[in-house]
Write a sequence for this structure.
């Protein structure tokens, strides 16, 4: 399966998994690492929690394979499920995402730095620790778009499909998110 | 296979999990579309009731029935139906958003399109007479709600302000007197000497009328209502004249004593008393335009 699986697109693997459940293992393999990183970035960072949430994501994906809309990218669809599961996890635990979101992506930090249009030298030199703190302190709706856009490197239409919001709203949220993040960073660097 | 893949496949086997059938998702989508259509139908019904209320608010008589434009606007605004329409439009949006690609359309566009659909639907329903049914049959079920016709009727049984409306019971041959059963059930015997020719014509032609006049002393210390103008009591966008008549009659209380006040003046020449009714010229012009 693996050998064939690698040459198949995600959408084709979904078609196979509907007939042969073993094929679903290929999708798990393809998305395990990516979704683990995404969950960390959303604030699910304890290993046992991440494993639980990941299992729920894949089981839900399998149960709902027939709901997959072929006009979307499979990755957008599974990220949507992952996002919803993470939100359910926070609700069930009555917790909000904490820090330590950013610890793995220097390139993402670089992209974010260039997009923040920082006017102060201090803001241009933001590090992962500051950014984690700043991200943790802004609203979840802003954090979600920042993570998807700059850390997961998703297009606006993909973010729209993942969060189920219009593309225009993605742009608005992202714009506001950057301003809020910049404000938080500026506050943190002054302390 | 790695660890997680194996774990997931084991759980799928152990818990005998299988993908939910496609028809369930197709139906879920159809149900949301159905709920959207239902919400839009309700919004159209509310919209038709708004149109019916606005069309029958008596704009042309606002100067007579109300003290000012602001008080008139406040009293005729169909607040209940506007709120109902707002709520169902929101429900329509929420259901639409749950459809497969519903989230892609911005809130304002989705609500704007729904509002447009509800307005077009409302115009069609209003033209078919459904607006009246919604306002009276549906709105009338709630004791606290006063239908537009009930509001109109109560503001037109105010002889002290020169306003009277109800059913024409009979008119004598030379218009010396005619009887009206006002909407509160009182039977009025009124003198018709000072009625304009057009008023007389309308009196004969219409079953329900509005009468504009004033209260005056009859010379014996009694206040009597002097009619000057007659206008038809028409319902715009109603179901049918017959149904409307039946409804109004059902609403009226049975008359206890078929009397008072009696307009005593009898004479062939019209007096100039009615010239004092304000706005006289406007009422003349308005009456000339009546069919």
């Amino acid at each position: 399966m693996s050998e064939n699986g690698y040459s198949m697109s995600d959408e084709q693997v979904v078609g196979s998994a509907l007939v042969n459940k073993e094929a679903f293992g290929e999708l798990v393999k393809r998305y395990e690492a990516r979704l683990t990183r995404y969950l960390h970035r959303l604030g699910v960072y304890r290993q046992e929690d991440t494993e639980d949430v990941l299992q729920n994501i894949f089981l839900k994906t399998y149960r709902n394979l027939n709901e997959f809309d072929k006009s979307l990218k499979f990755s957008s669809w599974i990220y949507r499920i992952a996002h919803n599961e993470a939100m359910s996890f926070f609700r069930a635990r009555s917790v909000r995402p904490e820090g330590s979101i950013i610890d793995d992506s220097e390139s993402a930090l670089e992209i974010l730095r260039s997009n923040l249009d920082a006017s102060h030298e201090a803001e241009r030199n933001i590090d992962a620790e500051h950014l984690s703190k700043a991200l943790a302190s802004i609203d979840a709706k802003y954090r979600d778009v920042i993570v998807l856009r700059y850390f997961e490197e998703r297009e606006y239409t993909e973010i729209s499909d993942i969060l189920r919001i219009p593309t225009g709203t993605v742009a608005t949220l992202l714009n506001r998110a950057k301003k809020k993040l910049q404000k938080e960073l500026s506050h943190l660097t002054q302390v | 296979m790695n660890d997680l893949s194996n774990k997931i496949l084991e759980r799928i086997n152990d818990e005998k999990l299988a993908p939910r059938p496609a028809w369930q998702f197709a139906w879920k989508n159809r149900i949301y579309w159905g709920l959207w259509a239902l919400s839009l139908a309700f919004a159209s019904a509310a919209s038709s009731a708004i149109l019916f209320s606005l069309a029958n608010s008596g704009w042309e008589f606002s100067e007579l029935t109300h003290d000012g434009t602001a008080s008139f606007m406040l009293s005729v605004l169909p607040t209940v139906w506007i709120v109902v329409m707002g709520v169902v439009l929101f429900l329509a949006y929420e259901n639409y958003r749950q459809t497969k690609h519903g989230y892609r359309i911005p809130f304002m566009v989705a609500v704007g399109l729904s509002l447009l659909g509800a307005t077009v639907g409302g115009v069609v329903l209003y033209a078919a007479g459904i607006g009246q049914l919604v306002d009276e049959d549906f709105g009338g079920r709630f004791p606290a709600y006063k239908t537009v016709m009930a509001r109109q009727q109560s503001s037109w049984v105010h002889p002290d302000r020169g306003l009277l409306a109800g059913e024409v019971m009979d008119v004598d041959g030379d218009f010396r007197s005619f009887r009206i059963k006002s909407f509160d059930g009182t039977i009025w015997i009124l003198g018709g000497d000072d009625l304009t020719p057009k008023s007389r014509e309308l009196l004969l032609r219409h079953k329900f009328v509005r009468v504009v006049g004033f209260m005056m002393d009859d010379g014996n210390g009694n206040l009597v209502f002097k009619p000057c103008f007659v206008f038809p009591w028409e319902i715009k966008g109603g179901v049918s004249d017959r149904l409307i008549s039946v409804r109004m009659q059902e609403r009226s209380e049975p008359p206890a004593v078929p009397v008072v006040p009696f307009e005593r003046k009898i004479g062939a020449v019209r007096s100039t008393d009615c010239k004092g009714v304000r706005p006289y010229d406007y009422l003349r012009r308005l009456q000339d335009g009546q069919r």
Summary: Chain A touches chain B at residues 2, 17-18, 21-22, 24-26, 28-29, 32, 51, 54-55, 58-59, 62-67, 69, 71, 160, 164-169 (CB under 8 Å). Residues 167-190 of chain A form the longest helix (24 residues). The two ends of chain A are 55 Å apart (CA to CA).
